[in-house]
Amino acid sequence: MKDAPLLEKYTVILHQNIGARPELIVKKDDILRKGQLLATPGGFVSVPVHSPTSGRVGALCEIPGPSGVKVQALEILSDGSDLPDNSLEPFPDWENQAPDILKKRIADAGIVGMGGAAFPTHVKLSPPPDKKIDTLILNGAECEPYLNADCRLMIERPEAVLEGAAIVARILGVKNIFAGIEANKPEAIAAMKEKASKYNVNIVPLRVRYPQGGEKQLIYAVTGRKTPAGGLPMDVGCVVQNVATAAAVMEAVKEGKPLIERITTVTGNAVVNPGNWRFRIGTPLSKALELSGGVKYSPGKIILGGPMMGFAQKSLDVTLMKNSSGIVLLDRDEISLFTSQACIRCGRCIDVCPMNILPGPLSVMVESEDFGLAEQYHAMDCIECGSCSYVCPSFRPLVQHFRRAKAEINARRRKAKS
Ligand code: SF4
Ligand code: SF4
Question: Rounded to the nearest 10 degrees, what angle do helices 243-255 and 99-108 cross at?
Answer without folding.
Answer: 100
